[in-house]
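Onboarding guide, step 5: your first structure request.
Type a short instruction followed by the sequence, for example:

Predict the 3D structure of this protein.
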Amino acid sequence: MKGKAVGRSLPRFDAREKVAGEALYPGDFHQEGALTMKLLYAGRPHARVIRVDATVAKALPGVEAVLTSLDVPVNEYGLQYPDQPVLCGPAAPDASWQKEGVDVVRFVGDQVAAVVATDEDTAERALALVQVEYEDLPVVTDPRDALRQEAPALHPDYPGIPQHPELVFERNLVSRHRIRRGDVEAALLQADVVVESTYEIPGQEHAYLQPEAGLAYLDEEGRITVIVAGQWAHEDQAQIAHALGVPEDRIRVIYPAIGGAFGGREDMSVQIVLALAAQRLGKPVKIVWSREESILGHHKRHRMCVLARWAAAKDGTLLAAECDVIADAGAYVYTTNKVMGNVLLTINGPYRIPNVRTEVLAAYTNNTPGGAFRGFGAPQGNFVAESQMDKLAEALGMDPVELRLRNLVAGDDPMPWGKPLPDDARGLQQCLVAAAEAVGWRRNDGETPSRSALFESQGAAGAGDPPYLRRGVGITLGFKNVGYSFGYHDNAWAGLELYGSTEIERVVAYAASADVGQGTRTVIRQMVAEALEVPVDRIDLRPVDTLSSRSAGSVSASRMTYMIGNAVRGAAAAVLQKWHDEERPARAEYTYLAPQTTQIDSETGYGHPNFSYGYVAIAAEVAVDMQTGVCTYPRIVCANDVGQAINPRLVEGQVEGGVVQAFGWATTENFIEVDGVPLTRTFSTYLMPTIEDIPDRVETILIENAEPHGPWGARGMGEMPFIAVASALHCALRRATGIWYNAFPFNSERILCGLKGYVPGRDRQAEA
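The system replies with structure tokens like these:
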């Protein structure tokens, strides 16, 4: 039910200034006398830095400084584990901080020097004058090779990985997750159908509109202040302080308008080097990356290869699922260990499977690091699970929607990790049926599911189509956690101030939640207005600034509406009590603690890893030109259980954006690295879909099952629309062409190769 503010499609409060070009992004900030910074990238995937000589560069008129590894007080950083140098190179022999390996570059985007000059042209010329002597080292780019005992060690051993006697991989292991449930081998022997497939899942470039940029300076109190785009201001503050060897309260981080993130800004980019330069020079310093620098310098979606064997009885009951995953972590950990945890939880789908064996390994390589990207491992896991479900349905001669409905978890049904989903999960069935019915599916009568008319009619040309055109529909289901996982006690802070005499005339709200384009700051205003029962136009939401706000956590894991909404409700209750007690102005703050989760057992995978989940289903229609491989996409339908849409129009925007972004990953985008060197480093070679390429229609179906602990019943949904798009397109292409591709992007070249008879990694199917 709509309230005064919650549930209404109110306009974004920042819409006018963004449309008018008046909103200030990090690259728009300037101070009198600001210097310009340019970074020297290694340009090679693996080498030891023997010497960095900046003598000639420093002598160039206009050059203020050339910073190297010798200038970094604590030369390490990392969101999960500090395994990356700020600037690669030797440490000073008498330095108080020493660490093995900081003189090694491990991918082409590692940085070796930072030039600070009076203008960009001078900085560019100085970069070319910095002389670096390298000793090239062996390059490892295949994670399967990296895990072999004979592979060169790219890092010291990553700590905290549980070891097991049967684990044959000992080199370059970044993370390891497993589930062991039941007796998979016995179930495979008893099954009527076993489907075995090998999948190759690609990476993806975030391609946010605003490249990395920022301005650093000393504020009036001497604090090192960094204006930058990120996803968690207080984490940026902590990492900057660590690398500079100063207390956190000497670092101030401010987020202005942010031009997209999608997980790409979870890890650091320009923050530390900007702060270092401002500290050393006592002057403001600015940097703006080019698009090529952005593509080289930040992480990508994880690539992975998967071997999956799934088994079912002839009545469609799932009996077993076995999955082996090897993922490419790239040069540094970043968030690999957490992403792989999500792969573990999603790769078997939301289904009752009594026997499960899942092994998820990730390895260091000399490729661009893998890290957070919208969906955070769930899209990769979903591609495997939903492709396997359709293959089983086909092998059994059953309707693929009915097969899913027959095996969906509900109520107290345990997931493969031994616990049920924390709500009744009815949204799973509702989303699946809603998306399927939107494209013409109807439930069959009778106890034994058969193929519905929708699927029987596919693979043929439609009425009025030319004879070389074939059509298909894919319908897939997805889920993902909301909030942080695996034992971390998720939290978020909000503060409120009420001003007025007899009534609340003005509200000042503090919440350090980044708005990366999704409209979070608008939604916060709506939730504050609803909680205080005041008009939205009385809410003054202050900018994200570590000086005035405590941490709200990262804008990731589809968590921010859920977490900050609960923090706002707590702060509102506290401040209203003070207001009713005649305190003027009234001030209160509140830190919300989410329901506790647990780590999963390192041997069985059992545990309670998440406190909330989101549910989504996708129905995708495709038309394939069988002569050329060119595809068109008449429609994609996304049914999403959002709990409560705080702002329905913004939710629809998230659905449409997520679907189209996933469509690009599935159909055109192809981040190519050869021997550790990216070849697709501009938008002329990394091809994103244009308005001419995207589906003719993206239809949104909003389902609202209140999340028991969510604010006003809201559950996170920002990542959900992305999750099941690639799998739905895969299944649709199968029905149009008769081919399982098992790898993507599904560009015309790949489609045509399949039509001509070349598809690597053919499936194997066995009937007991």
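Each response can be followed by summary notes, for example: The mean pLDDT is 95.
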